[in-house]
Amino acid sequence: MQARLLLEDGTLFTGQGFGAEGASTGEVVFNTGITGYQEVLSDPSYCGQIVTMTFPLIGNYGINRDDFEAIRPYIHGFVVRRHEDVPSNWRAQYTLDRLFKEYGIVGISEVDTRMLTRILRQHGTMKGILTTGSERVEELKERLNASSLLRDQVARTSTKTVFSSPGNRERIVLIDYGAKSGILRELTQRGCDVVVVPHDTTADEIRRLSPDGIQLSNGPGDPKDVPQAVETLRRLIGEYPIFGICLGHQLFALACGADTEKLKFGHRGGNHPVKELESGRCYITSQNHGYTVKEQSIAGTDLEVTHINNNDKTIEGLKHKKFPAFTVQYHPEAAPGPFDSSYLFDRFLDMIREHKRNNPQRPRQAQLAEALRGELQYAQK
Ligand SMILES: NC(=O)CC[C@H](N)C(=O)O
């Protein structure tokens, strides 16, 4: 089955279709990971995007039951150089082709992904249309121009209901903006009592869960598309220890008065070098983001930059100067790795314990009264 990918700049790639038949549009982005295609295609942060892998051999170890980052893939298409449909791995349960057929995702192989990536690096990410149909190119162009990028991906990927993963240690409320399951895994591995809540849960609803700390998840799209999430965070900063990851980092920055902007082609891969400014240490990190916190917007806020990207010097980590809260743009829960940054979850738990030591439990009623006072003051602002 023939398939084609047309980019906004008119470049047309022709290749072999796999997975579902049909057509779909999305933002075309590239990921440089050598392994981990199952984690990439099931990471909700790619919702609405057509992803190309720069590594040339994809599908060779199949799809297994363990490595999903979400219950289903949300990508709008997958572009590879060579698609291997006879997996060779003891964990493989079925093929990429079957997964894509089940979820209606169109794949294309035999594409010069190196050329595609160079185009995206030069022009920046763009819209594309991927099809297995026989439409005329003019028709594809019209459909592509008429299409618009999604703005509601957080609502599409966030859990609709509250659920918990009980543990006997700290109670963490994980706000799910389109969370990867890796975050829940890291918290539960540490014995945390995790309550996962939908993206639009109010500050009061979160308070009622009496968290010891709040974890902000990754998620798809532009952080400015979820202003209500920023509002909620504004109310919670200072009240609870907070750790934010990726979209959570960007939302936290917006809530603290900083600004975000879109990167030309983003950071997506498993080997992005990040420098921790305090120690001068370099960490190799997994990344997947198209937006970043604007450096100039930090001045005048209560934020301090803790990490930067060694390649392009963009902000990779922040902490609040007054309150127990820190965030990173990259993925400490990365799967299949690197694991360099998983210590950040331990740091979060240390921060919570220290916060508890410094703020011995006040009676529950006093806590609620305080929260209510906070809300009233907020409402009067
Ligand atoms: N992985 C993420 O959370 C990505 C954050 C945001 N959607 C971005 O692209 O920048």
What does this structure look like?
This protein has 381 residues and is an alpha/beta fold. It folds into two domains: 2-150, Glucose Oxidase, domain 1; 154-372, Rossmann fold (3-Layer(aba) Sandwich). 28% of the residues lie in helices and 30% in strands. It has eleven helices and 19 strands. It has helices at 37-41, 96-103, 113-123, 137-146, 153-157, 181-189, 203-208, 227-236, 247-255, 343-358, 364-380; strands at residues 2-7, 12-19, 23-31, 49-53, 57-58, 77-79, 82-83, 106-109, 126-131, 163-165, 171-176, 193-198, 213-216, 242-245, 260-276, 282-293, 303-309, 315-320, 325-328. The strands form three sheets. A ten-stranded mixed sheet has the order 10-12-11-13-14-19-18-17-15-16, sandwiched between helices. Strand 11 (171-176), helix 6 and strand 12 (193-198) form a beta-alpha-beta unit. The longest helix has 17 residues, at 364-380. The chain is globular. 46% of the residues are buried. It binds glutamine. Residues 45, 218-221, 246-247, 288-291 line the site of glutamine. Residues 45, 218-221, 246-247, 288-291 line the site of glutamine (GLN).
Q: Sheet bearing the most strands, described?
A: 10 strands, mixed
Determine the N-to-C terminus distance. Answer: 60 Å
The helical percent reads: 25-40%
As for the CATH topology of the largest domain, it is Rossmann fold
Biggest sheet, strands in spatial order?
A: 10-12-11-13-14-19-18-17-15-16
- Low-confidence runs of at least 5 consecutive residues: none
Domain Carbamoyl-phosphate synthase small subunit N-terminal: 1-131
Binding site for L-glutamine: 45, 219, 221, 247, 250, 288, 290-291
Subunit structure: Composed of two chains; the small (or glutamine) chain promotes the hydrolysis of glutamine to ammonia, which is used by the large (or ammonia) chain to synthesize carbamoyl phosphate. Tetramer of heterodimers (alpha,beta)4.
InterPro entries: Anth_synth/Amidotransfase, CarbamoylP_synth_ssu, CarbamoylP_synth_ssu_N, CarbP_synth_ssu_N_sf, Class_I_gatase-like, CPSase_GATase1, GATASE
